[in-house]
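The authors assume throughout that readers already know how a fold can be written as discrete tokens. Each protein is reduced to its one-letter sequence and a matching series of backbone shape codes. I therefore recommend that a typical entry be quoted early in the introduction. For illustration, here is how one protein appears when written out as sequence plus structure tokens:
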Amino acid sequence: MKIMQVEAKAGRVETEAGEVLVLTHCEGEGLSKQDAAVLDKALSGALHALLQSKEFEGEANEVVLFHTQGKVPAKRLILVGLGKRKDVGLDQIRQAMGHAVKRVRQAKAGSFTVALPSVTPRGASVIEVAQVMAEGAILGSYQFNVYRSEGPGNKDVAAMSVLAHQKSQLRQLTEGIRRGVATAEATVFVRDLCNHPSNVMTPTKIANEAKAIAKETGVSLKILEQKEMEELGMGALLGVAMGSHEPPKFIILQYHGSKKKDDRPVVLVGKTITFDTGGISLKPAENMEQMKADMTGGAEVLAAMRAAARLKLPLNLISILPAAENMPGGRAMRPGDVVKTLSGKTVEVQNTDAEGRLILSDGLAYATRFKPAALIDIATLTGACVVALGQFAIGMFGTDAKLKESVRKAGLRAGERVWEMPLWDEYFEQLRSDVADMRNIGGRGGGMITAALFLSKFVGDCSWVHLDIASTDWSERERAYIPKGPTGIGTRLLIQYLMDRAL
């Protein structure tokens, strides 16, 4: 998908010409304090009449298109609701932009101008508001049409202008747009990778994507092939990959953005299973096609790396992707097999469909070699996460209260919320094995917790957070700026965390 061009400019809504002018409106309020007030007189009171008729009331995500009949310079006017003034937050603005851009596309307009909302969350800066406006519009316009022979149903909206009333706001507006474009572009990148079928998006293809990112300023790349993994002793990752003809890859990207030589890096580790059949412990056929997105975590740490480089964040960052395909076959790992991980710990594999924690055990153990200031892994790890949290929260576990709080705040700002779950040692009793140091499943009860506890045994004394995105990585329906299918949720959370840490 070609990314929408977003720019900032100063001007007045009553003189703004163009295909579409978008204005926001709060529920239950008249025109006196709204941007639309200055247009209503030129439109002979038509907007006031619209509100009086209750056809449009400004409810959250309510949208109406109004043809101006040449009475003002803008050809069409779109009003989008923000809901009640007291409830307006950054995500309400992001959602409003997502709905507005869809209506612009339905109107077959190639560009639009949107006024900076007159009602914004208390304490929010112009930078923050501009960032979420750019995010909402770009993400709301997302389409994936690579494999459609007839092409897209509606052409992409090519450009958006954010209109400020004062020139003094332009500098902050431009910076906010820069950040919003970077985070949205990263999320689009993740959605694209996860939408490609697994006969295209193999571990080798993921490695090629990493090579492209390594061309960004300050980024370097190392890829471990199977022989090197064998020499290092990555028995867990290699065990998962045994059933597939696709060779595994262990990808390490490094970004050097800090001017301090001894600045310890943030390390991100992403689960990168390019397709998950469950292996010998085969999954049910229903919805198995969604397992092409089981590499979402890896795609997100790739995208975070690219965004950090493009934003020129002043920090050091490492992204690690253990990449493999989990398939049944003559050489596939069997239930009851024992693998020796990079850390030296042994694992009895009682279920080959609990493969994500196996590849992450080697990824996390490798990550500790960098002595990270913060270690974050992100993974579509457990179906239990879906049961526990539904589709609106990411499961969070961790060993460091300060890091968890930073991630929680980043999630709130990004509109990708996390919910902390317990990481109590008592649960490890469920992972006891009769023949190895531990087994890879802990039974039905507390499945998300036992999976996280398993991972905790491979992070040493690092400040660590685990994010289980199995509940949010795929959407069964289209929402404001979330498409049906792969969502990319978690990407902006990671980038927001990095920005909060660095800027």
Summary: The CA atoms of residues 351 and 483 lie 32 Å apart.
